[in-house]
Amino acid sequence: MKHTIVFRIGLLVIVLLACLLPSQRAAAEGTNPVVIENLKPGSDHWQLPWKGYTVADDINLQIKGYPGAESVAPGGTVPLKVTVNPAQSFTVDVFRLGYYHGLGGRWIEHLGPFAGAPQQPCTLERTTLMNVCAWNTTVALQVPPTWISGVYVAVLSNANKFQSLIPFWVVEENRHSEMLFISSINTYEAYNDFPYDPEPSDPTGLPRTGHSLYDFSSAGSLPAVKVTFDRPFSSQYGNPGDGGVYDFEPELIAYIERSGYDVTYAIEPVTDAEPWLLQRHKVVVIGGHAEYQTMANYNGLIGARDAGVGLAFISGNEIYWQVRYEPNAGVARRIVVGYKHRAPDPVPDPKLRTIRWRELGRPEQKLIGVQLPENGWMSWGGQPWVPQNTNLWVFANTGLRAGIPVEAEIAGYEIDKYDPEFGLPDGTDYTLLAASPFLTTQNKVFMQNSSIYRSRAGNWVWASGSMDWAWGLSPGGSSNGGNNVRPALQVMTRNILDRMIHDAKVGR
């Protein structure tokens, strides 16, 4: 029933917006592979658990896994490293995330059964508290050349009806799509506290196993200073609705693909190695929660802006901590290093210290336009978003009026604001698009801001200033957004993305 309601809402919104979206019609009439892809039948089975199944946990490891490489080119291979306890057969079902008639994904293929068995125990490095799972490849997933770029999910199911999933990204580096969507996997790994035990070790509620880059989700309140992609996502942060990869991105992906944009996908380790990829597209979208960013990626985003690429930061608290990569077992960019303030960072170059960017003299506001204030976390969920300066082209055909709240939980959970202490970004036409009051966890009243400005090259940089913005955009994807979908926000987002594409100085 949920998906029937969602699908009807999606149809209604498309009908209402059809006359406002000329580029959508143009895309649909052309050979845009994303439009063609989303005409195929959809499925919501990328969300777990299926009926009659149970999500595997991190202690018993009924079935868990991770990819030996998070990204792959069409025609390549993804090594799936899977452990099964006790030994039994398992299958793999592959899905691609998108719009797909409001279901948020498409089933692609079923593989197996395969013989599964327990892998060797993971090891905990005592000095860094990094947990490493040196597992063997169980399934070599072949990616046909026909699979287009996207966020893919391998759903693992064992004979005892336990399930987990493995995300991976198909990256088409040579396709000059109009839009590049970058998934924020650094942050998802920073929060990953595998192996998570839901039973606390003492009355404080702290977990008794697992270490992330956070004290609240680390055993003994002792966070790691390094985390690795060579381990599964935890049962707390690795499943739909539980955070991580599925907390914000499916809603935004569904919106973008439903709108007919020609979009390709990448992840931060890819653009860290090849920052020039950012300048192959008219718009770069950061839509997850890019709290942790390497210097190469930060510099790459600045370079893209200065070259005339539009930047859309459709989340909140982005580019907050500097991190860097290290190899693991000879493979580059498998470890995310983040000492923060909990231990001296031994890196020789002080510019690479893994502390906050603003403490390195490079406040994120100078690029994004807004940034997270001190203790800028809400005391609960999200709150209404309050627009301002609604005479701007951004708000055309939205019906929004300055000072009248959008009654949905859109401003949250972490928010950004303009801080005059750090100054304006390098550009023109800087405008605040919202001023939404909210109560912090410290019982202080802050003001959430959204912003937009024009770069010196003539393109636009937009910041929603809210982690939950994507929940207001699309009835497709995960169920997090629920009743927060607002057509006015859909139109506003479309206005901005269309103008960014039109005014781009690259890819012409």
Helix/strand layout:
Layout: H1 2-17, H2 22-29, H3 33-37, E1 54-55, E2 63-67, E3 71-72, E4 77-84, E5 88-97, E6 105-116, E7 123-124, E8 131-132, E9 139-142, E10 150-158, E11 162-170, E12 179-183, H4 185-191, E13 226-228, H5 249-258, E14 263-267, H6 268-273, E15 283-286, E16 292-293, H7 295-306, E17 310-313, E18 321-322, E19 324-328, E20 331-337, H8 365-368, E21 377-385, E22 406-414, E23 427-439, E24 445-455, E25 460-463, H9 487-503
Termini separation (Å)?
45 Å
Total E-strand runs: 25
Major β-sheet annotation:
7 strands, mixed
Radius of gyration: 22 Å
Average pLDDT value?
A: 89
Helical stretch tally: 9
The stretches of 5 or more residues where confidence is low (pLDDT under 50) are 1-29
Structural class: alpha/beta
Please report which band the strand proportion falls in: under 5%, 5-15%, 15-25%, 25-35%, 35-45% or over 45%: 25-35%
Which strand order do you get reading across the main beta sheet? 14-12-15-17-25-24-23
Shape: globular
How many domains? The number is: 1
Helix share, percent: 10-25%
The gist of it:
By secondary structure, this protein is of the alpha/beta class. It has nine helices and 25 strands. The chain has one domain (2-503).
Descriptive notes:
This protein has about 500 residues and is an alpha/beta fold. The chain has one domain. It has helices spanning about 1-15, 20-30, 35, 185-190, 250-260, 270-275, 295-305, 365-370, 485-505, and strands spanning about 55, 65, 70, 75-85, 90-95, 105-115, 125, 130, 140, 150-160, 160-170, 180-185, 225-230, 265, 285, 290-295, 310-315, 320, 325-330, 330-335, 375-385, 405-415, 425-440, 445-455, 460-465. It has a seven-stranded mixed beta sheet with strand order 14-12-15-17-25-24-23, with helices on both faces. Strands 1, 3, 5, 6, 10 and 11 form a six-stranded mixed beta sheet that branches. The chain is globular, with a radius of gyration of 22 Å. It starts with a helix and ends in a 5-residue tail after the last helix. The model is unreliable at about 1-30 (pLDDT under 50).
